């Protein structure tokens, strides 16, 4: 069950022609696919398109009604490979994943697909995870598109443009027999806006028809000599066809302005930023009117030489706004102008930075510096020489640097991964530090305070593989983390099988929280839930044993810190050869709470006896050393300043968001910390027997307490 | 060439209203954003919102951004504004901080400017790991955020909205939405805001309650006059009065303290005396005053009066702490008190008809057991490693003590009562020796360097907790005392001890402390 439900929103996918659709970018994308008569959809979740997968999952009814097949692909490679259905058959297919990592994973399939070309429209929707909040390396998918000859669309970040791009993309793919990538940046995925809907279209040619009448053509298979011809075909046929279509259908947009000897060439996705910068400089308005002409490239690859040349021919200078590096578009435009001997001056990287996100201020500075260089007369005096000190220079604002703490993402309240790392920290206290390879997933947060565990991360499911070189004799084994998501993505072969085959004497911890949790709690092969659409409940230990691991331990409650610690210690010290695999399983707490909380509340309302556990701290026992926090980092375990004049430091405190996972108590027990933690069992709707026993107990206990209180002076 | 649809031949001067929401993942910032968008759209405005969920949904800091503006009357069909997907520093009208430091972050990022930004923030704190993990006090100063807000914002509305949300059984977003409504930064009636909550249809009643709290809270802030909420310290130290309580023996101590000790130390002595008497008995209180009297004599002899008797006051604090060290008797005593049972019920907000049972997590080791034995016996065992180890095997394991059951309460109660034998235990002997050695150093230092002596007293702050924690604290204490001995005699000795103490509180492993000690070694 995914973290966010779109059950309500997906009803909007049924809107018909002329009706206004309002919602988020990812939802609009789904609607656009249905309007385009897509035959099958696949993908792999990951920010920023995770929710697109969730929308598709929740839209199963609509998809079924239209006859659209939807797969939760095992990986981006699996998703990309599924586009093979469009190679021989006129079926439109779309897949989606996070970029550029997803593109990296999918690269083999994408390159093969592109070489042979497609008959039906093939669309790859990539969520370009770049800039603020991005969780990955900062790279461009643009390079990939160029090297494989995949066309790359980068629409303006509004729903209308994005939806149109999907529709155009399929057609472009079909006329040029080439897969098309549609890039949407992280904010565009989540932009709220509106567009006028069209009717959904069932696929014109169905998968059933294809299976009934299979077609094959060896000239489409990547095998010499066909593959040599594919390259020629790309250049001599597919490219010109694409360019012709882009020009004729006006996929790129021109916005007129009266300052005709200037121009700005911009990637579609950057258009709003440029427009706002011009507006701030007094050269545009909020309705899209501009004084500086703009050439907006909704198709960033291939570049349409004629359009660029025509736009630049009459201009003294143009600014190219292209985020990230290398500056592929700028290089391409420079070549076009040079070849045609057009001497328009190019501004681009230089006034704009080569690296980093084009935030509002970066964009403003870039556009201003372009105009200062190319046509200073169009700027007002104030803009030309702003001399007001900004508020950021105020010492009171500067003082915030030492006050506002960094707040990176971390484990949620009650996260079952926390005790795994608490145990690992305890083991390190005993056996010294080890080389620990991290992996992609929530568990990577362990490399941050307070755990500070994990040295590298090489890619999804590659944690154990990234320790492969450390296969040498020594008394300290390497440790590798891998999540259940990464495990099923490719870890079983790339990491586990690899370690078995190479007889790697190492420790592998599989963090099994029953879902692909970091991306929003989607089900995977080993999920414990019944999923009517998918096959779940396939245990990881069976798979691990299946590829030949001899030393396997299953821990069914990660919160048992003592057991976790002892198992890790055993794995690190055993003489058994080969990889030692610990599968540490407990349900993702976010998902568990979403599942359990409503049931609990319902039971309580119905008068059923229920027990809720939560933790607390005895303030007068706590001395404020915070060792417990350094083994936890739980959001609900915090500190508070105390009014006790004899205490200098804040004491630990647990707030009402505690879900009673038990980590605090287990850790204080295993690490021999102070006994200030207590678990409170709160009995809702106690039975008559409960009340009777409680009365008895409080009678005896109360008597003793009163007796002692009489014979002493107590102030606490 | 395309021409954008336009409402006039010249550039239009309409500007969107910009709203940035600064929140932590899991706070429901998205709900607030959805409400604001729905509200504006219901009033015929164009609205766009964006967010960066990604991994920020996992308790990290995140920014949501909204731009809205009214469509002009008679707008041509298809007219849509081009809105920014990113907050533009200097051009944000409303900044909403769902937590105080997130409001601070907005100011750091330049989103809050005095010419146009209304900053609405919940003043509650949700501490970041960086603040919590320090062995000392790593909490960021809230006061700095208030000072910055006074400089950076046009208006600053702040109050504890998390508390109100809890009271309403809702989330902080709903309170914030109410505060936005009351701030009049969006030109819509209260009813339109409330209709938006109703239309969204989730948790309507609690949300409306929270909304009303937020609305009233913001109005109350505004009625105070100035455009900026001022900082009010949330917690001050509470000194129990140095006053009689109706117990003759204790009251005699109070009378003695009042007569013997100078007024500036009375508040701390009040706290210290209560602590040690509560810890052991009235006789222990007399011991405390005797120890303190020794310090006072020294204080007086060294111009203490002119210095406000800082030495005595500091000693009143740390001698009490040293005397009321943490041991098994103390824990058992505290955990079995009636007042504690009541406090737990309150802390976990148990309803009157609910039963509450607590489970304590205890992990005694042989070290603690030996400490609780009569000194002779304890030493006997300690000096025989084989025996010690064998016994440790029996003792040293985690025990879950269910204090609310008679079976578990009785032994714990019994253990708490054993405190009367405390003076004869090995632990007590060790603690007294440690304390006396420390005070001897203080006394030797006072005539030569008063401030240095005060600093030596404060080193006691490093000794904390039980078991491992206690051992770690004591080793830091010893290291700082050693360092102090090295700088003794220098005019800046006090300053160095302060630095050592602060370094010792920075990190668990004592890395900062080792660094500071190395610096000392480089010049002595």
Describe this structure in words.
- Chain A: InterPro entries: 4Fe4S_Fe-S-bd (IPR017896), HACL1-like (IPR045025), THDP-binding (IPR029061), TPP_enzyme_TPP-bd (IPR011766).
- Chain A: Pfam families: TPP_enzyme_C (PF02775).
- Chain A: Keywords: Metal-binding, Pyruvate.
- Chain A: One of its GO terms (molecular function) is thiamine pyrophosphate binding.
- The complex is a heterodimer of chains A (716) and B (524).
- In chain A, 38% of the residues lie in helices and 16% in strands.
- Chain A has 716 residues and is α/β, with parallel strands linked by helices.
- Chain A has 4 domains: 9-248, Rossmann fold; 253-384, Rossmann fold (3-Layer(aba) Sandwich); 418-591, Rossmann fold; 604-710, no CATH class.
- In chain A, helix 1 packs across helix 2 (50-58) and helix 1 (25-35) packs across helix 8 (159-176).
- The longest helix of chain A is centred in the first third of the chain and has 23 residues, at 226-248.
- Chain B is an alpha/beta fold.
- Chain B has 4 domains: 17-223, 3-Layer(aba) Sandwich (Pyruvate-ferredoxin Oxidoreductase, domain 3), CATH 3.40.920.10; 248-324, no CATH class; 328-423, no CATH class; 446-524.
- Chain B contains 23 helices and 8 strands.
- A 6-stranded mixed β-sheet of chain B has the order 2-3-1-4-5-6, sandwiched between helices. In chain B, strands 7-8 form a two-stranded antiparallel sheet.
- In chain B, strand 4, helix 2 (100-108) and strand 5 form a beta-alpha-beta unit.
- In chain B, helix 7 runs antiparallel to helix 8 (204-223).
- At the A-B interface, helix 9, strand 9, helix 12, helix 15 and helix 23 of A face helix 1, strand 2, strand 3, helix 2 and helix 3 of B.
């Amino acid at each position: 069950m995914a973290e966010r439900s779109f059950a309500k929103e997906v009803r909007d996918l049924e809107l018909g022609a002329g009706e206004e659709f309002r919602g988020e970018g990812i939802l609009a994308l789904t609607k656009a696919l249905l309007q385009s008569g897509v035959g099958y959809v696949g993908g792999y979740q990951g920010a920023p398109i995770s929710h697109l997968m969730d929308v598709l999952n929740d839209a199963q009814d609509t998809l079924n009604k239209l006859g659209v097949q939807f797969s939760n692909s095992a990986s981006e490679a699996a998703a990309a490979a599924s586009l093979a259905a469009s190679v021989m058959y006129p079926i439109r297919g779309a897949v989606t994943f996070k970029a550029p990592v997803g593109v990296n994973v999918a690269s083999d399939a994408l390159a093969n697909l592109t070489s042979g070309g497609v008959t039906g429209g093939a669309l790859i929707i990539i969520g370009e995870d770049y800039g603020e909040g991005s969780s990955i390396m900062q790279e461009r998918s643009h390079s990939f598109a160029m090297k494989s000859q995949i066309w790359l669309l980068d629409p303006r970040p509004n729903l209308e443009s994005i939806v149109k791009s999907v529709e155009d993309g399929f057609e472009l793919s079909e006329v040029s027999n080439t897969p098309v990538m549609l890039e949407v940046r992280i904010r565009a995925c989540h932009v709220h806006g509106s567009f006028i809907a069209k009717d959904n279209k069932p696929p014109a040619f169905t998968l059933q028809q294809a299976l009934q009448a299979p077609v094959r053509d060896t000239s489409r298979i990547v095998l010499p000599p066909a593959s040599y011809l594919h390259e020629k075909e790309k250049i001599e046929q597919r490219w010109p066809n694409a360019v012709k279509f882009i020009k004729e259908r006006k996929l790129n947009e021109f916005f007129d302005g009266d300052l005709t000897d200037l121009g700005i060439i911009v990637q579609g996705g950057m258009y709003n930023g440029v427009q706002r910068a011009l507006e701030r400089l007094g050269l545009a308005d909020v309705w899209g009117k501009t004084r500086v002409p703009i050439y907006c490239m909704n198709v960033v690859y291939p570049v349409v030489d004629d359009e660029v040349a025509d736009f630049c021919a009459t201009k003294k200078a143009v600014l190219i706004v292209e985020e990230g590096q290398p500056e592929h578009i700028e290089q391409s435009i420079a070549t076009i102008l040079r070849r045609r001997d057009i001497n328009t001056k190019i501004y681009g990287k230089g006034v704009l930075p080569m690296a980093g996100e084009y935030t509002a201020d970066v964009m403003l500075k870039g556009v201003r510096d372009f105009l200062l260089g190319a046509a200073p007369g169009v700027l007002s005096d104030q803009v030309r020489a702003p001399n007001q000190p900004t508020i950021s220079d105020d010492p009171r604002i500067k003082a915030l640097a030492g006050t506002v703490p960094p707040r990176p993402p971390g484990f949620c309240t009650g996260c079952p991964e926390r005790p795994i790392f608490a145990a690992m920290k305890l083991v390190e206290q005993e056996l010294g530090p080890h080389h620990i390879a991290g992996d992609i997933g929530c568990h990577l947060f362990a490399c941050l305070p307070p755990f500070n565990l994990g040295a590298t991360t090489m890619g999804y499911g590659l944690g154990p593989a990234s320790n492969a070189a450390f296969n040498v004799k020594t008394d300290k084994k390497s440790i590798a983390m891998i999540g259940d998501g990464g495990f099923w993505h490719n870890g079983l072969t790339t990491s586990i099988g690899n370690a078995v085959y190479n007889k790697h004497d190492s420790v592998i911890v599989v963090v099994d929280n029953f879902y692909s949790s970091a991306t929003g709690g989607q089900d995977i092969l080993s999920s414990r839930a019944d999923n009517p659409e998918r096959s779940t409940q396939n245990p990881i230990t069976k798979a691990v044993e299946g590829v030949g691991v001899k030393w396997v331990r299953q821990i069914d409650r990660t919160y048992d810190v003592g057991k976790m610690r002892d198992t890790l210690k055993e794995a690190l010290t055993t003489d058994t050869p080969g990889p030692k695999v610990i599968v540490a399983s407990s349900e993702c707490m976010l998902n568990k709470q979403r599942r359990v909380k409503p049931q609990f509340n319902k039971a309580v309302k119905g008068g059923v006896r229920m027990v809720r556990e939560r933790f607390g701290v005895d303030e007068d026992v706590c001395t404020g050393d915070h060792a417990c926090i350094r083994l936890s980092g739980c959001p609900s375990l915090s500190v508070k300043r105390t009014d006790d004049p004899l205490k200098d430091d804040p004491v630990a405190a647990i707030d009402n968001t505690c879900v009673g996972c038990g980590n605090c108590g287990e850790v204080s027990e295993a690490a021999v910390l102070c006994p200030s933690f207590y678990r409170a069992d709160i009995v809702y709707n106690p039975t008559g027997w409960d009340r009777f026993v409680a009365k008895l107990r409080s009678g005896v206990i109360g008597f003793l307490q009163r007796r002692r209180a009489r014979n002493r002076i107590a102030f606490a | 060439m395309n021409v954008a649809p336009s409402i006039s031949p010249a550039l239009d001067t309409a500007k969107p209203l910009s709203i940035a929401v600064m929140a932590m993942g899991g706070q429901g910032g998205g709900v607030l954003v959805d409400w604001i968008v729905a509200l504006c759209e219901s009033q015929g405005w164009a609205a766009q919102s964006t967010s960066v969920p990604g991994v920020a949904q996992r308790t990290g800091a995140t920014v949501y951004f909204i731009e809205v503006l009214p469509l002009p009357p008679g707008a041509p069909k298809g007219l849509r504004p081009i809105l920014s997907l990113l907050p533009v520093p200097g051009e944000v009208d409303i900044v909403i901080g769902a937590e105080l430091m997130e409001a601070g972050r907005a100011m750091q990022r330049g989103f809050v400017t005095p010419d146009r930004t209304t900053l609405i923030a919940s003043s509650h704190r949700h501490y970041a790991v960086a603040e919590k993990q320090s062995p000392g006090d790593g909490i960021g100063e809230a006061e700095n955020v208030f000072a910055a807000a006074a400089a950076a914002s046009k208006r600053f509305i702040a109050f504890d909205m998390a508390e109100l949300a809890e009271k309403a059984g809702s989330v902080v977003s709903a309170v914030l939405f109410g505060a936005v409504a009351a701030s009049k930064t969006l030109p819509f009636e209260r009813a339109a805001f409330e209709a938006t909550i109703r239309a969204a249809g989730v948790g309507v009643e609690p949300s409306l309650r929270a909304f009303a709290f937020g609305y009233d809270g913001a109005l109350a802030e505004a009625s105070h006059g100035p455009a900026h909420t001022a900082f009010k310290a949330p917690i001050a130290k509470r000194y129990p009065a140095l006053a009689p309580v109706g117990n003759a023996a204790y009251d005699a101590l109070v009378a003695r303290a009042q007569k013997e000790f100078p007024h500036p130390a009375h508040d701390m002595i009040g706290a210290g005396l209560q602590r040690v008497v509560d810890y052991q008995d009235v006789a222990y209180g007399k011991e405390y005053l005797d120890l303190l009297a020794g310090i006072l004599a020294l204080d007086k002899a060294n111009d203490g009066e002119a210095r406000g008797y800082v030495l005595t006051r500091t000693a009143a604090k740390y001698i009490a702490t040293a005397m009321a060290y943490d041991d098994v008797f103390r824990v058992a005593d505290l955990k079995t008190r009636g007042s504690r049972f009541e406090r737990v019920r309150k802390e976990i907000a148990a309803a009157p008809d609910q039963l509450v049972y607590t489970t304590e997590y205890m992990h005694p080791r042989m070290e603690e057991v030996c400490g609780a034995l009569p000194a002779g016996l304890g030493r006997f065992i300690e000096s025989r490693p084989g025996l010690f180890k064998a016994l440790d095997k029996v003792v040293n394991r985690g025990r879950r003590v269910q204090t609310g059951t008679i079976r578990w309460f009785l032994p714990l109660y019994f253990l708490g009562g054993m405190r009367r034998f405390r003076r004869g235990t090995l632990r007590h002997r060790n603690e007294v020796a440690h304390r006396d050695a420390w005070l001897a150093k203080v006394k030797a230092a006072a005539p030569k360097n008063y401030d240095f002596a005060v600093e030596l007293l404060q080193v006691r702050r490093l000794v904390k907790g039980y078991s491992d924690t206690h051992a770690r604290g004591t080793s830091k204490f010893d290291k700082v005392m050693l360092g102090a001995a090295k700088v003794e005699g220098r005019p800046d000795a006090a300053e160095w001890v302060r630095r050592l103490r602060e370094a010792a509180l920075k990190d668990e492993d004592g890395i900062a402390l080792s660094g500071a000690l190395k610096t000392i070694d480089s010049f002595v």
